Amino acid sequence: MRNITIKLGYANMDVYKCPSCEPPYNFSSSPKCPNCGGKGELVRKISFVDAPGHEILMTTMLSGAAVMDGALLVISADEKCPQPQTREHLYAAMIMGIDKLIVVQNKIDLVTRERILESYHEIKEFLRGTPYEDAPVVPVSAQRRVNVDVLIYLIEKYIPTPPRRFDLPPLMPVIRSFDVNKPGTNVEDLVGGVVGGSVLRGLLRVGDEVDILPGAEVTVGKRKEVTPLSTEVRSIRFDSQSLEEASAGGLVAVGTSLDPALTKGDRLQGNVLGRSGTLPAPLQRLTLDYSLLDRVVGVDEMVEVKPLATGETLALNIGATFRTAKIIGARGTRIELELDSPAVAEHGQRVAISRRFQRRWRLVGHGTVS
Ligand code: ZN
């Protein structure tokens, strides 16, 4: 909600499988098989949440990580590995509990065969001792479309669509929100506010009554207040396709009956959407059991992480929700925090913890909601 100045970018892709060709050359992002020219079958829809390398705010990237089923760690073969942001991204994936990772060794068309091998060894060395030690490394030239079919094949194999939990009510973290109306549209032609995110569990249907919590920040007199929102799902879209329902996998845009002014410019980013009456009440105070990294991530020099102390202000990513919070109690590996603004948090949920360092929030550890 605050401190988010870089927007998350995302793109959707259809995955086609050619029935006549052998893996890994039978996968493509277009219906026409690039191998034999035959017609591929649509097997899956995937979405990419972009987390660009330099100067990205860690907290923005972590918001996106909340809806990721896996990560592609893109490393340029023409640069020494790891770059500081590469380390930062790897730790972020680890801390957000992403267990499926594929390393994309990009720009192989720009370097010699020797450098590709050297870069491969740097990558393997970098991953050694991390949970991603055995992650596949695929050499690619995105520019020249070399090995893109192999990459799609590996995504299919290592990052399958997550299991769908239809026994639970639908839940969707909101990572974007928009007003899709063109300026000057007549009031009677206005379309309701749109929220974008990924359904993590359950099935969301057109016609569902939903709550969006904690809600929208509004000014009442001189004070700022957060008002919970209730609305109806009017439409669900994946790219240009209209859907009647959405479940886990892929980013969708959900049309609502809300005043579009409420959703304009990512105003509802960080909220949680769920069936009416099923979401936990937003919390103003939070207790976390935490553990810290040995060193601050994302800076060139080796900086040790000092223990957390009462009175200090931290940044938290609770799913797609960003909050700053003050430590009001610390004992052992447990802290109690006062949030700057209420947030929806579930028992056992993973929270990324950042601390201000050199004028930026830097990842220092993670906690679970107690
Ligand atoms: Zn084919």
Q: Features of this protein?
A:
single chain, 370 residues, mainly beta, Rossmann fold, Elongation Factor Tu (Ef-tu), domain 3, 6-stranded antiparallel beta barrel, 12% helix, 40% strand, binds zinc ion
Please explain how this structure is put together.
- By secondary structure, the chain is mainly beta.
- The chain has three domains: about 10-160, Rossmann fold; about 170-275, Beta Barrel (Elongation Factor Tu (Ef-tu), domain 3); about 285-370, Translation factors (Elongation Factor Tu (Ef-tu), domain 3, Beta Barrel).
- The chain has four helices and 21 strands.
- It has helices spanning about 60-65, 85-95, 115-125, 150-160; strands at about 10-15, 25-30, 40-50, 70-75, 100-105, 135-140, 170-180, 195, 205, 210-220, 225-240, 240-245, 245, 250-255, 270-275, 285-290, 315-320, 320-330, 335-345, 350-355, 360-370.
- The strands form five sheets. The chain has a six-stranded antiparallel beta barrel. A six-stranded antiparallel beta barrel has the order 16-19-18-17-20-21.
- A hairpin with a 2-residue loop joins β17 and β18 (about 320-330).
- α1 (about 60-65) runs parallel beside α2.
- It is globular, with a radius of gyration of 22 Å.
- Residues about 1-5 have low confidence and may be disordered.
- It binds zinc ion.
CATH class of the largest domain: Alpha Beta
Provide the helix percentage.
10-25%
How many domains would you count in the coordinates?
Answer: 3
Could you say what the CATH topology of the largest domain is called?
Rossmann fold
Largest β-sheet summary? 6 strands, antiparallel, barrel
Q: CATH homologous superfamily of the largest domain?
A: P-loop containing nucleotide triphosphate hydrolases
What structural class do the secondary elements suggest? mainly beta
Sheet-strand content, in percent, reads: 35-45%
- State the separation between the terminal residues, measured CA to CA: 23 Å
CATH architecture assignment name of the largest domain:
3-Layer(aba) Sandwich
Shape: globular
Q: Radius of gyration over alpha carbons?
A: 22 Å
Widest sheet, order of strands? 7-8-14-11-10-15
Mean pLDDT: 88
| Number of beta-strand segments | 21
Helix/strand order, N-terminal first: EEEHEHEHEHEEEEEEEEEEEEEEE
> Which ligands does the model contain, each kind named once?
zinc ion
The low-confidence parts are: 1-6
Q: Count of helical segments?
A: 4
